[in-house]
Each structure stands twice: as C-alpha cells, then as structure tokens.
Amino acid sequence: MSSEQTIRTETDVATDAEPLLRVEGLQKYFEEADGFLDKLVGDAGKVQAVDGVDLTVRSGETLAVVGESGCGKSTLGQTILNLHTPTGGSVEYKGEDLAGLSAKEMRPYRRDLQMIFQDPLASLNPRQTVGKIVKAPMEVHGIGDDDEDRTERAKELLDRVGLKPGHVDRYPHQFSGGQQQRIGIARALALEPELVIADEPVSALDVSVQAQILNLLDELQDEFGLSLVFIAHNLSVVRHIADRVAVMYLGRIVETAPVEELFENPQHPYTKSLLSAVPRIDAADRTDRVILEGTVPSPLDPPSGCRFHTRCPAVIPPDDWPGTQRQFKDGFTFRNRVLAGEIDADAVRERLRADGTTPDDDEVAARIVEQSLPGDPADLPPEAADAVREAAAALAAGDDDRASDRIADEFTSPCEREDPRTVSAEGEREHTATCHRVDPDVPGRPDVF
C-alpha cells in the first residue's frame, strides 16, 4: 500500500450517480435481559447485531452481503426494510430516509422494497393457496382491476418463476423446497419492486436446486430491472451473481469490493479466511487454508478495537516486540484464552489423572501450556516465554486473577486498542477494507501475512 491511500467510508466510493439505496451508520441493538429483575433495574445488556454499517446499492446491481452465521446479515436486511426499527443511522431510498418510519408511513415504499426469506416454507401461510399468497400484496396495494385480474397476474408470475399456472390452487406443503422458494420469489415480484433483499434464499436448498434459483434470480433481475441485496454465508455462491460484495463480521462491514477484485485481491484477513474455504476445481488455484481459531465473540460484549482481533491470524505486534509476528500471534492467542477464562486447570488435572498419574501443579501448568499455546514456548522471546509459564503456573494453583494480571500486558496489540479505519485499496476506488493492517499509518503493519 502506498502513502497515497485514503481513509474513506463505503459510501464515499460510490460512483457519481446517486445510489438507489444509501445506508449510513446503521445500528440495530436488541435488549437482552435474563429476567424480570434485569428489566426492572435496567441492567439488561444490548446485543449489537448491527453496529455502524455503511452500504450503497445502485440501480440494477447486485450487492452481496456475506459472513458467518450470527454476524448480523439477516438483521441488517430486515432493518434496511424497517422490519426492525433502527437504533441509529439512516436508510435512504431515492434520497428519502426510511429509518424509524411507522408502518403507515412505510406503506407507500413497500411496493418498491420487497424481501425473499431464507426459509421458504416458514414464510408462506400454510392455510392459503399459492394463488392467494401471491395475490395478497396486490390486494393490499390495490393492484389489478379485480380478483380475476389479480389471479391472471399470479398465474403469469408463477409461470415466469418456473411453476405452472395451474398451481394457484395448491397449498405450500404440496411443493418441494425449491418450488416453495420460487413461490416466495413470485410473491416478492408481485408488486414490481425496484429493490429486493434476498436473505440466504438458497441456503436451505440442495446444491443443484441452488443453481436453478440463482440462475432464475439473475434472469429476473435483467427482465424486471431489479436491484438486489443478496445475503449469503458462502462466498462461492455469490461469485457469479454479485456485482459487488460486502463482507460482514460481528455487526460491521470489514471489506467491500467489486466481486472479481475481492476474489483476486482480498485485503482483510477475515475475507482471506473465507476465500480460503471456497472449493477449487483446479488444484493450482487452491490457496493455503486459513483456519480461524476460537469462536465468534458475543455481540453482547464485542471485543474492543478491531472486532476480529481475537481470531485474526495477522494481529499486529507492538512496536517493541522482539520476535516474529507468528510468535506474537501464538502468545496473543494464549493470553486471550487466559483472559476469557477458557482454560480449566481442574479439567486438565483430571485428564492427567485419567492417564494414570498424580499430577502436581508443575505438571498441570506444563500441560496447560502444551494445550493452550499454539506454538512452542521455547520459540518465544525469553520475557514472553516467562510470562506464559508463570500465568500457567498461577492457573494450576487456582489463582486465575494472578494469571490474568501476569499475562495481560505481555502481549498487547494496536488491533485491540483502536478502531480500524476504512482504507481504499491502492488504485481501486471502490475497494475498501477496515483493518489496521492495510492502514499505512499503523506501525508494525508490514509484517507478512
């Protein structure tokens, strides 16, 4: 990256044409209370499902939003459509802010903004015929001269999505999963919308059926002039349908780029890990698999700084770190496990006993290091190795607080202290990443990843 890189928001990199949809700083928090007392004293936590998302969608394009399950993708889609009231931020459709509008105020916009849901059967009323399901939006918005006209429109839509016009009198349970999703698509198109949010529309379907639905969506987009927000957890699904991709992690967008640029030149370590999991037909195209350690943190208490730093294979060492980045990452992983209370010394002791020994604290501490430090402690710089061993000894002695105090300051990173900025990739105005490692102003970032 050159010094000419600029710090930008995703909306800064849109083309000069005004986007159809502009999302800025969008937040959606949910109250999480354990019981009546929490609600009474106001001590409930907040699930930060969506936390400061910027996105743009242009007329006729497909923007894919991808990320692991639980990262907030579905909540983002529903909040954009005001199915969830935003906690903060704005959602502008053709320049009009929809955030927080009442159901009555949203009604004029519902014709233009529709959704295809992840579970096709759960989104279809089992007591209504397919014809009634597809006609319902028309009735609400006064489309069609009469019921007969709406029925004919429904038959045409069913035919267009690959079903038979005669299916209007059948019920959802009489169809396969792929056919049910086609019904959902027909319903979404009944109002001739401009923007459709498709929430993992193929994740519940067999691979062969997935391809059929993706091809159908591609055809319908061209025919109806649709703009699509396509939500998925699998990058391989979106490559041939999306124009641009936004990668989401724990409520935030970490990278946005044109689809081919993202596949060829990913900038964020999280994006690289997702791409490394995409199957390749040609072995020569296969990249080294990046295995992420640990689990996705809770959105109730997300990590400080970069939210990915607890799992990042490229976490940045401090300026005065005397070892390699790989050594730092090993120690940083051990530190995080200690601070998170993930190391159970009693369980380690019991496993040693099950092996037929009567372990003392030194043996327990040695096993803790063996199991919880990814590398060899002998490879760490001396002071860092001492900190690891002393923290493990404190855990073995049952003093978790002393273990945390000993290890807490030994492995620190700018990734955990500061929020990363959004940076444009060199020469790619529309390619942005929110990561300290691609920020030219962050010391230590040139370490190889």
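That was protein one. Protein two is written in the same sequence-then-structure order:
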Amino acid sequence: MASRIELSDFLASVERRAFKQAVFAVRDEETALDIVQDSMMRLAEKYSDKPAEELPPLFQRILQNAIRDSYRRSRTRAGHTIQLSSLDPLDDEFADPLEAIEIDEEHNPFATPHAALLQVETLSLIEEAIQNLPPRQREAFLLRYWEGLDIAETALAMGCTEGSVKTHCSRATSALANALKAKDIRP
C-alpha cells in the first residue's frame, strides 16, 4: 500500500508530463488541466490502497480514459453548439514550449541566444510532430518513451495487447522520424 507521501511524490513527479500528454491530445490547455486534475483525484480516491509500483500504469490508464471521455464529450457538444474559441481569431502564440523542461542554468549548454532559439524551434517542431500523430500512436509513444513504461504496463494503460503497443510505437517513431527528417532535423 502506497503511503500518502509516496502517492504525493508520485503525483508531483508526473503532473507536468501528464499535462503535456493531455495538451497534445485535446489541444486545449484548460481542458487538459481539468483532465489531469480529475485523473489525479480519481487515482487518490480509488487506488490509494495500491502499492506504489502499481501507480504509474494505473494513473496512465485513468488519464487516457479521461482523454477519451473528453473526446466523446466534445464530439457530442460539437454537434449541438459552436465552440466560442473558434470565434476568437487570437490564439496564444506566445506559449512557451520549454515550460515542461527544467534546465539548470549554470550547466545550460544552450546559453547563447542563437542556440536557445534553435532549441525552442526544434522543440516546437517536435511537439507539432507529436500532435500530428494518430491518437493511439501518440498515446503509445508518450507512455513508452516519455513516461518510461514498459510494454506490459503500456498495454495495461492503453487497454490493448502488447503486440498492439509495439505496432503503435513502431509506427509512431517512424512517422516522427519522417516528419522531423522532412524539416531537416537529425539526431
């Protein structure tokens, strides 16, 4: 059974990555924040009695289900209403893609303004490529390579077979490599 401190530490360690996953999926920061908060509450309320090592796949399953529920709700609403955000021509173009990355300024290899600009542009292109992946590929990719879940944990979180996880990850990495190669970004 996870202690309150273990649960709190776990939630603190995943909140930023979970938020980015939700933003990639729903493309709206406020909705993404609601999804992450609801997912964290569900984990704390329903699964706080589970061992600490079971929390990562459980949380990811809750998060992915909440994202799917958001899709369903938005599709239902879209059939009946016009989203007010579509009427506003001003988008938040000044969002910082580096917000999710913590950098030790003392040891920052990108200390020059030119290098910092290149890093921002590269991260922006990578985020765009991830957003353009099909939902299941994006989900598998983020769970495996961003969250660091193994194949079995990813399959559990996604509610599919391990073979499906491998297929989705392979297709996602191939699509990302091609998209970044087309923009002349090489490893």
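Residues 39 and 45 are 10 Å apart (CA to CA). Keep this in mind for the problem set.
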